[in-house]
Amino acid sequence: MRSLIWQFSLKCEGRVPKVLVDLYARCGNGHQEPTLGDLQNTLQTILDGFSSAFIILDALDECTEREKLLNWIQTFILGKDKNLGLHLIVTSRPEQEIEDKIKSSHYLDLVKEPENHDLVAYLDYQLQNNSDLQKWNSDTQKQIKLKLMEQADGMYVRYQHLNYRIIIKYNFRFRWVALQLNELKKCRTRTDLKRQLADLPQGLDKTYDQILLGINEKDHCYAKTFLQWLSFAVRPLTLKELATTASIDLSAENGPEYESDNELQDIKDVLRICSSLVIRSEGIIYNDTRLKCMLNVKQVSSSFLTFLLKNISYLSIFKAIM
Length: 322
Description:
It is a single chain. By secondary structure, the protein is of the alpha/beta class. It has a domain of 122 residues. It has 17 helices and ten strands. The strands form four sheets. It has a three-stranded mixed β-sheet, with no helix packed on it. The longest helix is centred in the middle third of the chain and has 14 residues. The radius of gyration is 22 Å and the shape is globular. The relative contact order is 0.09. The C terminus is likely disordered.
């Protein structure tokens, strides 16, 4: 709830919503915890200021307090006529409890194609055109393709439009397959390749855990810094800007300080250190979408989140960015 209030507040034309200022004052200027009712009323008031708004909830099936969240969706979002301008997107593996709670009279399934033509085409292109994968003979490439297709773990997106009650399922296998290909590119021998194919991680969460474990220990602090800044930046960052964050000491006694001696000599080291964890597009660096959602759900118990969230100073990063 707090995260939603914060995110929507950032979209209020550069000003802090009055209802949030009032809530802060009522709670002893931040010394008291607001009640759930206070938070819901605050969020509702902020949402009333938008003609249209979207809420995205990723991996609902992995939520540790799923029942509470489903009840909140039913009462606060689906059960209120006043929220007709609000759109809800939920990602989840298909589970009956979630199906029962989020019902729809109109249903559109985008993954009915049994042959997964798009995924097959993507794999064929990568195996035939990527220099690190071309080295394998046709039989080995066929083995790679069959193994990845067999084990690709599907994720589904349900899109709930409050006016039209449409749910759309979308498959996120592409990201999982792309991450596995990145790891397979590092294999130098058939033995390496067989070992990698025999130990493919199940799902995206375990894939990210495996990628994390593969980061050189001396680069851990850099990886944490880059991913934390990407997660809390109020606007997209360029490669040069992100590389500069390695030079910022957030723990300095008088506030964040720039240390020129800590500056990266090659800004592309960011991409080498965070390989597979970030995406570069038109000069801008992005977190993988799934990863960013994981970072915002601190209840998830995973070595990846433990690594990134340990000793993190949200306030320091926010102040430095602002």
